[in-house]
Specification:
Structural class: mainly beta
Shape: elongated
Distance between the termini: 102 Å
Largest sheet: 32 strands, parallel
Number of helices: 4
Number of strands: 46
Strand content: 25-35%
């Protein structure tokens, strides 16, 4: 075979697509649909433009474009040589054409005639009629400085540079010196847009979106999709498309590899999963690839807009609850809800059902104003949260939202903590009531895991509680609470731990420190129960009432209290600057305090200039 024939054969082989389950989001929108007949992928180069091409293998979506990647043999089915939008233009040695119509103009010199002073030149030492101001050294005697990119902006051509840097905006024209005066302003805008496009290209940012639809039901119906270094920013899109949406009756598992970013606009969730209005909703599972040592290799940042969640559902008029979402691995670098939306959970006014299960991985979630960090959006209903593993670095509520729980005016919230580590659960501040660190308005069970810090938000009137149930609160098993603190409030500080019905502390549970918030009126209690408090085991290190002007909070306070077993090391009332100090341990009102067992090492009332606490 001749050398020419061999070269031709090699080129032909390189041009042939290799269909093997890898698709590039930079090449265009991707829709994956699974039903009883198989899995179909519709992308830029699909043969079947309606349904997509059959692909029953493991599907991977990568960031960037097919043409910009050098895949291993046998990878990739979306070549991406014809993107649907914003075709890339290589920054080559030849500048854009000067006579293209209706395109942005870029001035490379700003003179309108010979002999004008150069304003952009580092040292103005040209002499006699030089025409270009962009040179750094002096010229002599009427020389014309080059405007050719190849000679001035690229002293030597770099094939590597040309292959890696692309400009995806409109054509840029080199402005002529005789153009009108408005052209430089247009050029400035074009250059800013070009700089943004260069940045986006370097980070593989695209505004194309991914839609996953799993209609399959029955056994083994899970649709598996891997995201690898995907970076979608649809925040400026004019359509109501989430960066990535998952829907249908079947289950979907998304495996993260590398760093992935999903940013949505138009009141869409970053990674959107809405409860179906009719029929069954499949579960969305987010997990991660692992290295040879079993460590997670994938991460995700998801940002919602409007009143939608970072990961979860949209606001009510576009959807309902978020269905079932499980975090089973990977790093959720940040899940950020839009105003009214949860970081992970539901959007505002969600009256459907939202279930969030965290079994592994690392999570950081931030609710928008009035939304929870993890849980419900503003005015949401029917939220169930279970944490059995993993690490929650931060779960922070927006204004009046809970760190873990519900948003403002939310109801029917159930929280169960069985394992894992919660490093920070922070309630949002409030003009009247503040948000709570961890909150359930029905049963709150804490039977395991570690809570390093549960902090109520500060309120102008009422501070939020560190850990709070409107109903029954059970702290049992080997649960370990390092610090639970109420927020400060103008009228009343929040309690470190509070239940409005029944509070039971038992088994080997450990509460190292529970502290009430401070107030200009009444300090919050370290541990407070409005119904019946029973201590039948475990250890309470320090229960400290918050300071107040009129009255200090109690260390441990309950309407009816029964101490049967366990150890209370310190129960200390808060101080009052102009009233009554808080009690160490006290039964409230007409309730009773019964001590049948256990050990109380110290119970001390708070100080006051008028009346000390008991």
């Amino acid at each position: 075979m001749t050398a020419l024939a061999l070269t031709a054969a090699m080129v032909a082989g390189m041009a042939a697509p290799a269909y093997a389950d890898v698709y590039y989001i930079g090449d265009g929108n991707i829709t994956i649909t699974k039903d009883e007949s198989g899995t179909y992928v519709k992308h830029a180069n699909s043969k079947d433009k309606t349904k997509g091409d059959l692909d029953n293998g493991e599907i991977t979506i990568k960031g960037g474009k097919r043409s910009e990647d050098t895949p291993a043999p046998g990878s990739g089915s979306s070549e991406g040589t014809t993107p649907a939008k914003s075709p890339a233009k290589s920054m080559s040695a030849t500048p854009p054409s000067e006579d293209s119509e209706n395109n942005d103009m870029v001035y490379l010199d700003d003179t309108k005639g010979s002999g004008e002073e150069n304003k952009n030149q580092p040292d103005n030492n040209t002499t006699g009629g030089e025409e270009n101001e962009n040179q750094t050294g002096g010229t002599t005697g009427g020389e014309k400085n080059e405007t050719d990119f190849t000679k001035k902006t690229q002293p030597s051509r770099s094939p590597v540079l040309e292959s890696q840097i692309t400009y995806t905006g409109p054509s840029l024209n080199v402005a002529d010196a005789n153009d009108d005066e408005e052209t430089p302003n247009e050029s400035t805008t074009a250059l800013k847009r070009a700089a943004e496009n260069f940045r986006n290209t370097a980070e593989n940012v695209t505004n194309y979106v991914i839609r996953i639809i799993n209609k399959a039901t029955g056994n083994d119906n899970t649709l598996n999709v891997t995201l690898k270094d995907v970076n979608i920013d649809a925040s400026s899109s004019k359509t109501n498309d989430a960066a990535l949406s998952v829907e249908g009756a079947g289950d979907t598992k998304i495996t993260l590899v590398g760093d992935n970013k999903l940013t949505s606009g138009n009141q869409c969730a970053g990674l959107e999963h809405n409860e179906e209005s009719t029929g069954t909703t499949g579960k969305l599972t987010i997990t991660s690839g692992t290295d040879k040592n079993g460590n997670n290799t994938g991460s995700l940042t998801a940002t919602g807009s409007g009143a939608s969640a970072g990961i979860g559902s949209v606001t009510f008029f576009l959807g309902s609850g978020a269905g079932i979402i499980e975090i089973a691995g990977g790093t959720i670098t940040e899940a950020i809800g839009g105003d009214g939306g949860a970081g992970i959970g539901s959007g505002a006014n969600s009256f459907g059902t939202t279930t969030v299960n965290i079994t592994s991985g690392t999570v950081k979630a931030q609710g928008g104003d009035y939304g929870a960090g993890i849980g419900g959006g503003d005015n949401s209903r029917n939220t169930n949260i279970t944490i059995s593993g993993g690490t929650i670095e931060e779960a922070v509520g927006g204004s009046t939202g809970d760190g873990i729980g519900g948003g403002n005016n939310s109801s029917n919230i159930t929280v169960t903590i069985q394992g894992g580590t919660i490093k920070k659960a922070q309630g949002g501040k409030g003009n009247f009531y503040a948000g709570h660190g961890i909150h359930s308005d029905s049963t709150l069970n804490i039977s395991g895991g570690t809570i390093e810090n549960a902090q109520g938000g500060n309120g102008n009137y009422y501070g939020g509680h560190g850990i709070y149930s409107d109903s029954t609160l059970n702290i049992s098993g080997k649960a370990f609470i390092q610090n639970a603190k109420g927020g400060d409030g103008g009228t009343e500080g929040g309690s470190g731990i509070r239940s409005d019905s029944t509070l039971d502390i038992s088994d080997q549970a450990s509460i190292q420190k529970a502290t009430g918030g401070e107030s200009q009126s009444t300090g919050g209690s370290g541990i407070y129960n409005h119904g019946k408090l029973t201590i039948s085991g475990g250890t309470i290190g320090t229960a400290q009432g918050g300071n107040g002007t009129i009255s200090g909070g109690s260390g441990i306070l309950g309407n009816t209290m029964e101490i049967l077993a366990g150890t209370i090391q310190k129960a200390i009332g808060g101080n009052a600057s102009n009233g009554t100090g808080g009690s160490g341990i006290r039964s409230n009102g007409n309730g009773t305090l019964t001590i049948k067992g256990g050990k109380i090492e110290q119970a001390t009332g708070g100080d006051s200039e008028k009346y000390g606490g008991s």
